[in-house]
């Protein structure tokens, strides 16, 4: 199998060069682990597609452990004796909520099926999706309202969340471009409506976190999307949020 050396003294195996049969895979992976040992390398990384999942027991037999996974791929690592810590990248799930008010001092709210109170439209930020794109999409799916992103006005964390991971939630200020509610995702959303800000804050059927969040953040400026000179190349950052006030 082919591999490259990374800048952290590690080895990254090219899964496209992995043999399909277990005996050949065992032999070639053993050679790489021996190379790593002889050359004082740190971590060996290999990402196996689901089509090669039958090779996973071979890798674990040679000392590889699970690191992270996607729907169709799992990444395993082999840690040498000189390494004490392997960075675990997927530690958080990400979500975004849309704080949208109109000229009548009303805030846009949704209620999910089986839920008591109301909350901000929003949801999970998909893999490869930006905060702006996500919160605009979720707002439309849950309310039918087209909205324009303005800023990030708040953040909250929660742990433990799903599957032992942490959750990072972004509260975003959006401006409605339309007013008529037309729920798209009726399987998830039972109701969407404009609610007077004070009415929402004072309604004890709504969760305390949501009430306090609206009371604290309505009218705030927040962190705005910013374009920086030289933001290109391998270190390009698709979204940068800076305070401008």
Automatic annotation (TrEMBL):
Instruction: Kindly give the SUPFAM superfamilies that the UniProt entry links to this protein.
Output: Nudix
Q: Which UniProt keywords apply?
A: Hydrolase
Signal peptide segment: none
Residue ranges annotated as transmembrane are: none
Q: Which InterPro entries match?
A: Nudix_hydrolase, NUDIX_hydrolase-like_dom_sf, Nudix_hydrolase6-like, NUDIX_hydrolase_dom, Pre-Nudix
Q: Does the keyword Ribosomal protein apply?
A: no
Give a single Pfam family match: NUDIX
> What Gene3D superfamilies does UniProt report for this protein, alphabetically?
3.40.630.30, Nucleoside Triphosphate Pyrophosphohydrolase
Which residues are in the Nudix hydrolase domain?
91-217
Supply one GO molecular-function term.
NADH pyrophosphatase activity
Official protein name in the record: NUDIX domain-containing protein
Question: What organism is the protein native to?
Answer: Vibrio chagasii
């Amino acid at each position: 199998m082919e591999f490259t050396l990374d800048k952290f003294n590690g080895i990254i195996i090219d899964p496209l060069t992995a043999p399909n049969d277990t005996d050949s895979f065992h032999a070639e992976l053993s050679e790489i682990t021996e190379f790593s040992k002889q050359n004082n390398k740190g971590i060996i990384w290999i990402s196996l597609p689901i089509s090669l999942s039958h090779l996973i027991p071979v890798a674990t037999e040679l000392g590889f452990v699970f690191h992270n996974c996607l729907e169709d791929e799992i990444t395993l690592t082999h840690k040498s004796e000189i390494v004490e810590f392997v960075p675990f990248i997927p530690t958080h799930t990400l979500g975004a909520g849309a704080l949208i008010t109109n000229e009548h001092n009303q805030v846009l709210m949704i209620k999910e099926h089986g839920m008591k109170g109301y909350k901000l439209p929003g949801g999970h930020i998909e893999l490869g999706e930006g905060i702006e794109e996500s919160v605009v999409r979720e707002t439309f799916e849950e309310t039918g309202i087209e909205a324009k992103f303005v800023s990030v006005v708040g953040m909250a964390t929660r742990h433990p969340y799903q599957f032992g991971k942490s959750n990072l939630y972004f509260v975003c200020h959006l401006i409605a471009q339309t007013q008529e509610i037309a729920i798209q995702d009726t399987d998830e959303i039972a109701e969407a409506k404009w609610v007077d800000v004070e009415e929402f804050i004072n309604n004890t059927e709504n969760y305390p976190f949501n009430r306090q969040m609206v009371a604290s953040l309505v009218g705030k400026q927040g962190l705005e999307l910013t374009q920086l000179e030289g933001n290109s190349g391998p270190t390009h950052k698709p979204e940068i949020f800076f305070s401008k006030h």
